[in-house]
Design a protein that fits this description.
Layout (H helix, E strand, L loop, with lengths): L2 H7 L13 H12 L10 E6 L2 H10 L11 E8 L6 H21 L3 E6 L4 H11 L5 E10 L26
Antiparallel strand pairs: 1-2, 2-4, 3-4
Length: 173
Amino acid sequence: MDIMEALFTRRSIRRYTGEPVSDEDLNLLLKAGFSAPSAHNRQPGHFIVVRDRNSVEEIAARHPYAKMLTQAGCGIVVCGDTKKQEREGFLIEDCSAAIQNILLAAHGLGLGAVWCGLYPVPERAQVVADILSIPPDIIPVGLVVVGHTDEKGRSVDRFDGKKVHYDKWRAED
């Protein structure tokens, strides 16, 4: 898939067939995550692949927007290591870039995916940290639910020229 096509046609998918994601596809998704840019090349990202049925069901039951995880092929929790990147803002940016890469890679592979936020909602991040035994110096940033899609996302043109500013800020009309 052409990169521009991927950017303009990727949508958040919340309905899945339940078919597992192959190890080959999963490794490509993880490789895409590791390929994301990182502030000062600190590479703070860690990825927890969640396939264990009990963990999947517990996360889905306790995260208000991750119910679809039970029907997906897997979840990928993207975390950042505060020992590698002390500046929390950069850590969040690095992990967010990794999440976007995973979302685009999933789309390019013909899979569906959706980003379920963990950070900055302490209750959501802590629930996932507790279920997956994540140590305190690791911040769970987001959960990417991935699977074989049971729906077709429709493309939406979200370009808004009124929000584009050249050289300096201009008031919106």
